[in-house]
Amino acid sequence: MTNTAVSLDVLRSHLLELLDGGAAHMSFDEAVADFPLDAINTFPPNVTYTPWHLVEHLRLTQRDILEFIVADTYEERRWPDDFWPPSASKTDAVGWQRSLDGFREDLAALRALVADPERDLLSPVRAGWEQTLARETMLTADHNAYHVGEFAILRQVMGTWPDARDSA
What we know:
Elements: H1 3-20, H2 28-32, H3 51-70, H4 93-115, H5 133-158
Helix pairs in contact: 1-4, 1-5, 3-4, 3-5
């Protein structure tokens, strides 16, 4: 194995770790664990979106990046309309679960792309001009980490963490 191959294996491993969270930031699953269904449509103080809006934004954005990576042709979405649900929209337990599951499914699909040793991390993606799988993975991980942290803070402000949660 060449140094380049070893380096790409290390990069692949680091990218997967970034996607999973938990190294330098909270994972998605930890942030949303045991979130009370009666609070999914609640607007926290001084915030213009609900916890469900935020989870759905994470799902929509991650989905967009995944489609950008794998599509032969890509149609750019409109910001912010195609990346956030309408502010007046609400969901129910089924919609909440659909958002959680959709996020997890797309994350698993992205992880599979990154984990595939046959996939070149540094070649431009099909629909891109110079964007690579490595770059789009870092973009996704960065976006997810930002909003997962935001979700955790909203939980703190809203008082929706379980009482038994270790605050350390």
